[in-house]
Design a protein that fits this description.
Elements (H helix, E strand, L loop, with lengths): L1 H9 L10 H27 L11 H4 L4 H25 L3 H15 L13 H22 L4 H24 L1 H7 L4 H5 L1 H17 L1 H7 L10 H12 L6 H27 L1
């Protein structure tokens, strides 16, 4: 939702935007997000990674749903994203099919398949690319049939916040992931470095507002969202761990929403 809103706002004043395409882009984005969550629940559950999970309940690991049911839900959501993406590609450029195919493979391959990249410490990289750069610039392209430097810049900002969500989640799970053999980036670099990385990811989006404001000054209004950054940064920096990091995860989600909403408003006003 956030990358679509920001990407659509970047399209304001660029060519002759077809705003109804943003609805299709939103459908792709939401379906992908739901599909990724179900796919992760399924793959981690059947591997036993979530057996001692600290945090929100997972369907397969808790026994609330069968692995088959969760797998079908993941495929349904990803299939919905594929259909919406196919329509979007037909209306804009068939090159989007390649991007969409890569996104679908990445969605399943995060924790699925023989060598899931989420277990190799590459989760943050893929989240940055697909839930930041691709989702934001892709929406701008879908709406205005042109990607812009501004959309790439804001895609980096959105991607950093998406990564921050994953980082705080993996920070919480370092003990259980280490025990189960899930070598996330947090497990590989350790607790202290992960905390510093989270703070950096929370700060980068605000630093990127400076060059973005040179193009569209009203986007600077997103700096107000720094208030929402104080709570998760404080919790992570002071050493919260385990279940106490669930609150930091929620606060990071609110930061992402606040930043995205304000940035979208500012971008639209300056277009």
């Amino acid at each position: 939702m956030v990358p679509v809103a920001v990407g659509a706002a970047c399209a304001v004043g660029v060519g002759e935007p077809a705003w109804w395409r943003a609805v299709l882009a939103l459908g792709v984005s939401l379906s992908m997000q739901v599909g990724v969550n179900y796919a992760n629940d399924y793959s981690d559950g059947v591997r036993g990674t979530d057996d001692d999970r600290v945090g929100p309940v997972r369907l397969v690991a808790s026994g609330m749903a069968s692995p088959g049911a969760v797998r079908r839900a993941a495929l349904l959501a990803l299939g919905t994203a594929a259909v919406a993406g196919l329509v979007l590609a037909a209306l804009t450029s068939w090159w989007l099919l390649a991007v969409g195919a890569a996104a679908l493979v990445a969605a399943w391959g995060y924790t699925g398949g023989p060598r899931p990249y989420g277990y190799l410490g590459l989760g943050e990289l893929f989240v940055f690319v697909f839930f930041g750069l691709v989702a934001t610039s892709g929406t701008t392209f879908a709406v205005a049939e042109r990607a812009t430097g501004l959309s790439v810049l804001m895609g980096c900002a959105v991607g950093a916040l998406a990564c921050a969500l994953l980082v705080v989640n993996n920070l919480r799970d370092i003990p259980t992931d280490s025990a189960s053999g899930k070598r996330t980036l947090a497990v590989r670099v350790g607790d202290a470095t992960t905390r510093r990385g989270f703070v950096a990811l929370a700060v980068v989006p605000f630093a990127l507002l400076v060059p973005a404001a040179l193009d569209r000054p009203p986007v600077a209004i997103a700096a107000v969202a720094v208030v929402a950054a104080l709570d998760p940064v404080r919790r992570v920096w002071r050493g919260d761990a385990g279940m106490t990091l669930v609150a930091a995860l929620g606060a990071t989600g609110r930061l992402q929403l606040a930043y995205g909403a304000l940035a979208a408003v500012g971008l639209a006003l300056g277009g």
